[in-house]
Amino acid sequence: MVEQLIHKYADAGINFLEAAILFVVGWYVVKMILRILSKMMKRSQIDAIIENFVISILNIGLKIIVIITVIAKLGVPTTSLVAVLTTAGAAIALGLQDSLKGIASGITILFSKPFVKGDIIEIDGYVGTVQEIQLLYTIVMTFDNKMVVIPNNDLVSSSFVNYSHEDVRRVTMTVELHPDNDIPQFKAALMQVIQQHPYALKEPAPVIKIGEYKERSVSMQIWVWAENDHFYDLNDDLWVAIRKIFKEQNIKIPAQQIDVRIQNSDIK
């Protein structure tokens, strides 16, 4: 009887020692795996947000596996424990369904990169610079210094405009002139300003053309290409130049016409 107890406690002690060794080794292996994965992600230039998210999820998952393995080594039934963890995980996933969709959308944006930090985008009437891309939200700072927080679900499921995606951008302007003006003279003066402007690109070539003849006006279309960083400066300078040409050439502006009809009626 005594020998059986000794063997029993000896086996239990050995199992406990093996479980402790398994726990220490497993914990160390998890850290090594995460460290290697982190280095691989950094070499692949994966966004830091994705790296932290993936490492955190793997850290929790691998450590749970280590703990379950150690518990099984101690002779404790793990079937019920695994079932409880599975049920709890399903319940948490169901409760955080919207958040998980947002996280998936954030990962999609960070991987596909339809825009990056510093880009100018427009969505839902807001135009501003991307300040930060998080897993759930993207923060945009408008030009009047308003912070707009946009859920990543909206960015993935709807259309938006990225003004910074290409290196160059076209300044598009429309000017209404009276038909009595010297149109070729106006075009020549404006084209000279454009060709001398340091921000106006030679290729693609600038264009000034008649867009439409109306009853009391001529619509002029002006297209000039510029680098993204100089877009707004060029746009502003061209409007100033057009105003100056208007004064120098005494350009007539089409007068607005209001039709008033008076209907006589017999009042008895």
TrEMBL record:
Gene3D superfamilies: 1.10.287.1260, 2.30.30.60, 3.30.70.100. Residues 174-253 form the Mechanosensitive ion channel MscS C-terminal domain. One of its GO terms (cellular component) is plasma membrane. It is a multi-pass membrane protein. It comes from the Bacteria. PROSITE patterns: UPF0003 (PS01246). The chain crosses the membrane at residues 12-30, 50-72. The keyword Transmembrane applies. GO terms for molecular function: mechanosensitive monoatomic ion channel activity. Residues 57-97 form the Mechanosensitive ion channel transmembrane helices 2/3 domain. Keywords: Cell membrane, Membrane, Transmembrane, Transmembrane helix. It is found in: Cell membrane. Residues 98-165 form the Mechanosensitive ion channel MscS domain. Belongs to the MscS (TC 1.A.23) family. This is Mechanosensitive ion channel protein MscS.
